[in-house]
C-alpha cells in the first residue's frame, strides 16, 4: 500500500507540477508578448525621433534661401552682398518659379508676416524668415547680423 500511495502521490505531484508549469508558461508567454509590444513601440518612437532629428539637422545646415525677382534692384543687390561676403545661398526668381513663390508665401504666413506688406527680397535663414521692409541699408545690416 505504501508503494501504491507513493505512486499515487507521485502521479498527483506530477499532474500538479505540469498544471503549474503550464500556467507559468502561459503567464510567461503573456508577459513576453507584452514586452515585445513595448519594445516595438519604443523602437517606433526611436525611429520617429531620429527622423525628426534628421529633418531638423538638415534644415539647420541648409543654405540661406533668397526669394526675389530679377527685375528687383534690391534682390540683385542682396545677391551681390551675399556673394561679396562669400555666403552660400539659393536664389529663386518668383516671377518665373511659381512653385517657389507659393513656398515663400507659406513661409511668410507661418512667420506671421502679412503678405500685403510683402516687399522683396524675402530671406529664409534656416527657418528665420524676414524681408526688406523699406530701409534697404537696415535690411542689409539685419541680414549680415543674422548670417554671422
Mean pLDDT across the residues is 82
Percentage beta strand: 5-15%
- Number-wise, the strands total 4
Regions with pLDDT < 50 over 5+ consecutive residues?
54-61
Query: Helix count?
Result: 4
Topology of this protein?
Layout: H1 2-61, E1 64-68, H2 73-84, E2 89-93, H3 98-110, E3 122-125, E4 128-131, H4 136-147
Tag the structure with descriptive keywords.
single chain; 148 residues; alpha+beta; Glutaredoxin; 4-stranded mixed β-sheet; 66% helix; 12% strand
Question: How would you describe this protein?
Answer:
This protein is α+β, with helices and mostly antiparallel strands and 148 residues long. Helix content is 66%, strand content 12%. The protein has helices at 2-61, 73-84, 98-110, 136-147; strands at residues 64-68, 89-93, 122-125, 128-131. Strand 3 and strand 4 (128-131) form a beta hairpin. The protein is rod-shaped. It starts with a helix and ends with a helix. The model is unreliable at 54-61 (pLDDT under 50).
In brief, what are we looking at here?
It is built from four helices and four strands, in the order H-E-H-E-H-E-E-H.
Amino acid at each position: 500500500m505504501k508503494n501504491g500511495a507513493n505512486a499515487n502521490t507521485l502521479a498527483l505531484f506530477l499532474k500538479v507540477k505540469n498544471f503549474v508549469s503550464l500556467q507559468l508558461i502561459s503567464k510567461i508567454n503573456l508577459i513576453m508578448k507584452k514586452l515585445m509590444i513595448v519594445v516595438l513601440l519604443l523602437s517606433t518612437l526611436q525611429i520617429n525621433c531620429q527622423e525628426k532629428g534628421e529633418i531638423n539637422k538638415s534644415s539647420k545646415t541648409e543654405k540661406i534661401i533668397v526669394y526675389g525677382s530679377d527685375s528687383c534692384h534690391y534682390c540683385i543687390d542682396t545677391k551681390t552682398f551675399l556673394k561679396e561676403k562669400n555666403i552660400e545661398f539659393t536664389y529663386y526668381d518668383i516671377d518665373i518659379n511659381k512653385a517657389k513663390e507659393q513656398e515663400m508665401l507659406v513661409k511668410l504666413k507661418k512667420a506671421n508676416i502679412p503678405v500685403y506688406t510683402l516687399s522683396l527680397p524675402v530671406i529664409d535663414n534656416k527657418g528665420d524668415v524676414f524681408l526688406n521692409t523699406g530701409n534697404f541699408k537696415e535690411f542689409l545690416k539685419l541680414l549680415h547680423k543674422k548670417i554671422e
